[in-house]
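Re: Re: token formats

Sure, here are both.
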Amino acid sequence: MRLSYDWLKQYLDINVPVKQLAEKIERTVVEYDDIIEPSKGMKKLVVGKILSCKKHPNADRLKICQVDVGADKPLQIICGAPNCRAGKKAITAIHGARVGVNGNVKIKRAKMRGVRSNGMLCALDEIGFDKDVVPKKWQDGIYYLPDDAKIGAPVYDYLGMNDQIIDLSVTPNRGDMLSMTGIVHELAAIYNKKPHFTKPSVNEDPTHQAKFEVKSKADPKVAPIYKLRVLNNVDVHDSPLWLQIRLWNCGIQPKNNVIDVTNYIMLKYGQPIHAFDLDKLEGHELVARHAKQGETVVNNDKKSIKLDPKDVVVADAKQPVALAGVSGGLKANVDSKTKNIVLEAAAFDPIMVRMTSRRHSIHTESSKRFERGINHAGVGEALDDAAQLVNQTSKGQVASGIITVNDQKVEPKVITVYLDSINNVLGTHLSKDTVVDIFRRLGFKDQITGNQFRVTVPARRWDITIAPDLYEEVAKLYGYNNIPSTLPGGPLTSGELSPKQKTYRKSRRVLEGAGLSHAISYSLTTVKKAHMFMSDDHFYETKLLYPMSVDHAALRMNLISGLLDDVAYNQAHKVTNTTLFEQGRVFLRSSKDQQKPTELMHVAAIVSGSLDADSWYQKAKPVDFYQLKGILDMYLREMDVAGTVEYKATDKHPEMHPGRTADVYVGGQHVGMIGEVHPKVAHEFNVSKPAYVFELSLHKLMAMPKRSQQYQAVPKYPAISRDIALLLDKDISNQSVIDLIKQRGGKDLTQVKLFDVYTGKHVPAGKKSLAYNLVFQNPTHTLVESTVNKAFDKIQKDLKSKFNAQIR
């Protein structure tokens, strides 16, 4: 909302520097983004009268103009505007003038196609006006000033450029600050002044009755308040200059006197008004309702909008003519041929308006106000003021009476507060008289009984509903800077991380120590990506009702898809070796009826390319399954999980390579998976190199029993090592062999390590060769060969009997 300082002073006797005013508003109500001074940096822009205008001898589109700027003799100026003609007064930049935003362009004498030009005849956008607020009539040419403009005088007052404008950043809870009346009431309370508002008096013509029918079945859920006024014989033309200045200084493009009045009233009251051409409405009917299946509406840009049955529209007897509370349609818009109009003032349901606006990505000044709420008690007053102003600017006759389709009795809210409560919450010692004075300045009526206040809040402050809202009003008018600073009371406690926080931090630290970089991906993704890489397929996605885009339509149920997007981004920027991990929440619903998803913490990692870069002593090797498995083994070991870690090959994950994927079990409980992303899936993500990933449920790992960390002294007695090579069937897993060796190796067996795997020449078909190193050691005495040999023979015997292994 742009606040015009000149307009503000029409309703409030205030004379403070605009910078000081803006800072006061920011400390008290809402923030401001900027202070705009349209004439800042400008100089030597004067009113010039074009005395003559003739064709340039060396250019088809240029004209040589003689311009009177109040000097001793006219200036010769070359102009290329198509609407340049003699007898008109225009914005003239003379030699040395500064134009553009903050005067960033200097005008100098110059020759154009051999003819000297001593200045410039300017369009509005050339002197700093935003192109979007320049009336269409003047967008392709120079701007004509009023005929009574004084020749040679500065142009700034004629264009409203000496105004100062505060660009307010209005929060959703303060919709009243999107109107001049709301701002004036707020500043009147802050500066303890009385605003100058007068109620509109409509000059109705009793000879003109409203020959207009409205269906009485207008949906009260769509528009609990819906009122209309009819005007006949209007003359649609350009608005008076004062009205155009009000609009373009507030960032709105002037169009014609009828539409400009509706925008002006919206800025003044915060009440959007819409004008329909009465003669273009089928059956002379208007009704606010939900759209029907298959209906469309054509907007003012001539684009057809396909409507959803949840959309709210305003329709005539045949079809929708506007999106209710959002924007008008082309069919019944007001143009230069319009003679009879109907003005609509309504209170549309804010949620329905917001849903319609978001669904079609149409955000307007009107929808912004309806979404935040409007003053329901001021709908009729705004409609009367709009009708009277259209009457003044178009000489149209206002038909007698308001057509009321739906109405709503608006009662002011009465809230009870206590003086002790106010002081306890604010930490102050305010007297009863001080609080009474604050409520009086706000325009709130109160009844006092002892320390109790029964405060009557007017409808224009619909944001105030409970006692704490009144505490805030007292605090801001008393002055936040006047509230004493105090330290919190109570016993002091030492700060400490919770066990959960410690686990999260340790998890990140371990993976960072393994050389992986921490990535953070969006929690929102596509529905398809949400269902990928799921260990369980019985979960349902959580969709957003109104997503920002199709790429952010659902909450994620895995972390791997986000990491694949990160790898694709890196590879697109020539980073071929990527090692990333992410620790974050996933969102799962176990049934369609579950309203809110369950949030679970997961941890995932991805490696693509090589873990090590090329160097002088070795070449980089592509990452493989076992390198990532080593990182995962180290991670689980450092997380002190007590259960036995198992990897079981699986082909149940369609997004993973069926021969290079395993489910991860800890203590017999499934906690995640590890493997290579299927090449087809990697291609879908635009990942060009093989990518190996794992994802674990950190939620499950945290719930598992943990190993107690105890110091073990370095053994004083030597170890004995034995190697064994086995010829086994290919379907026998390494883990099953290790489990058997540990089971039969006795208490002195401290380590089993696979150091060689061979298949190929000299190995029979369907067989493989595995070689293991076994370490025996006792912490209390030196082992003898006979003890180790006995345990080693037992291991060999069981391997032969259980796996039919051949000892090589």
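Second one below.
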Amino acid sequence: MNRRPIYTFLTLFFTASLGVFAATASQAAEQHAANVDPRIGTGGDGHLFPGATVPFGMIQLSPDTAMPDFKHAYKWAAGYQYGDATIMGFSHTHFSGSGHSDLGDVLVMPIAGDVRLDPGDEKVPGSGYRSRFDHATEVEQPGYYAVTLSDYGVRAELTASRRVGWHRYAFPTGKPAHVLLDLRPSIYDYSGKVLWANVQVRPDGTVTGCRTTRGWAPGRELCFAMRFNQPMTSRELYNRETDLVYKGFKGPGNQAEDAVAQNGRALVGVFDFGELKQPLLMKVAISPVSEANAIANLDQDGRGWLFDAHRADAMAAWNKALSPIDVDGSPSVRTQFYTALYHAMIAPNLSMDVNGEYRGPDHQVHHADGFDFYSSWSMWDVYRAQQPLLILLHPDRTVDFVRSLIASQEASPFGMLPVWSYQGLETWCMTGYHAVAIIADAYVKGIRGFDADKAMKAMVSTATYGDYGDLADYMKLGYVPIDKEVEGGSKTQEYAYDDWAIAQMAKAMGKTDVFATFEKRATNWRNVWDPKTGFMRAKLSNGQFREPFDPASAGYGDDYTEANAWQYSWYVPQDVAGLITAMGGDDAFNRKLDQLFDAKVDPAIFKNVEDITGLIGWYAHGNEPSHHIAYLYDYAGAPWKTQQRLKQIMDNEYGPGPSGLIGNDDLGQMSAWYIFTALGFYPVAPASDEYAIGRPFVPRAAIHLSNGHTFTITATPMDGTHPYVGAVTLNGKPLDRVYLRHADILAGGELHFTMQAEPNKSWGQAISARPTAMSSYSR
């Protein structure tokens, strides 16, 4: 999605440190990493990077093909676009599929021969240090990336561990070898976003430094430590502050100012190694806290120089992370499935040093006591499916995630859980306070290991902070007035859902007063429902709906966040039964859903809203407000229509190759939607223990649960001529309901789908067969 600020407040060796994910290749039950294609989503609007990382690691070491100014940065949110012809370097931090840009820290470029200090123009070969490359020379695997830089004849290989990026550069003979370090670039905006930076070469040859940027999270500080396996023959450190824009350099520059230390806003270092007869190895550790911590991270997580061993460890870590699900299917199906699972396990990212220190939203240094601190939280996206998927597959990891959220709230100057944060800092981007849904979903599904009372305190504190997104008026009026706050319609709906999530956890904890308060607030969606037009609409402070009204209208300042009335009017996941009643009953509800999918829509209507992509009628799979909609037929007695729509979506919105994602992956949400849907069920309302049943898209999948049980999904026949569910059995017994409980999965067993050519219109019609919604608690 288009990430814009909507709120203006400002250990041992690598295998030991990977903890639960550390495993050798021989230990992994299945070598699923071999099915992953990291190229998927690196073109178009997927915003994914092809480089090296490990599950939830701090390092994302990847090539950057461009870092344009902020106005043009959208397509380069991950630093790389498959259609580009040049690489400007390799940086160590990247977002995975975000709709907003930043990071791109510690950019390095291996150079053979003459050195140029600026990237140059990608259209003019030789105008700068960037190099042309050919996709035929690229190798993309989980935890490994390689490419030949054709302008230099350098073969570059990258791999990663949790806190360290590993480089191996093979230089051509007969030319001097150099590594250029550029501390100016930021994926947020190349020019002018560095507030201050420093770099120094220590007596033992270790290069260290820090920089502070004023990008998406203003005042973000990142430090690094870098070592080479061969001594430098010389080095030059430049302050290029007369040239903060990389194209058209006309300043005097180009003179080394120091060989030991340098500081300023535009630092470049060049490290010289002469002619090399063997590959140059480099390792880089980062820290959000200090140079000393970066050195400690390098000392502990970056021991030795065995590049191939670290590459094998990274692959083993991915095989371990992917091992909870075994899937049968064609090679293309397995590639699509395991690539989606891989992308669902890149974020959130470790944001803590080996000594337990991390930086919090107050910009201060804190210490994690007994847990790993994670950041990179795109809450508006990942609460829907990515985090529920990890609860199912890696519940131990979820404990650290929840503890990280609580720790962030305790350090917040505003008492708020993260909204959209990374490297510990808050951006205030997007809407809602969906961290409460992640915590509640974990608790309701039996995850323990965190302080539930602290969590509830953090959730209530967040939901009652009146200055955030006009929560003050929301608590007073029961809705967010559009004349006080932009996107008041959708904010009302999102707050109401989050309130319901708080109520579910409070109920499970026996906190009846908190439950009563937030259960009542969860009905506030009704205050923006307009029975006259049949859509959700924003209200003014005087209680009147804003006029004029056009259900097709979308854009910043409108009633809704990155959507229009056709898309947001279905967002009542906590009370679908109530929404069905408001819309006139099952038949009217289903007819309107059909209108949504079958409408003839000109995509040009959304030319100013970059994230509304993947249109099927008004349905926009490229953006998250639509993600639950196809499953809503289940709640209105027509699950066969859910099956029909899911096939449309899977056929049209996912595919092979760089353009295989129709929209931003959004830190794993688009991919997690695919995983759940391929398995045959989906968490429409996280913080419920239920999953709405759709239809599977793989013939067999076995989920190996952390409790030792295996839950197997099978479907026969599985082919294009049998798209509908004829019957379902659970452990051999007919399943008449169109939902699964979390406990059904944890118990293990087999869910079997009998597929057929024509829809079974009687299955799932009964009220008792439908997933629970707030207005049907009595079921």
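The radius of gyration is 26 Å. The chain is about 25% helix and 20% strand.
- S.
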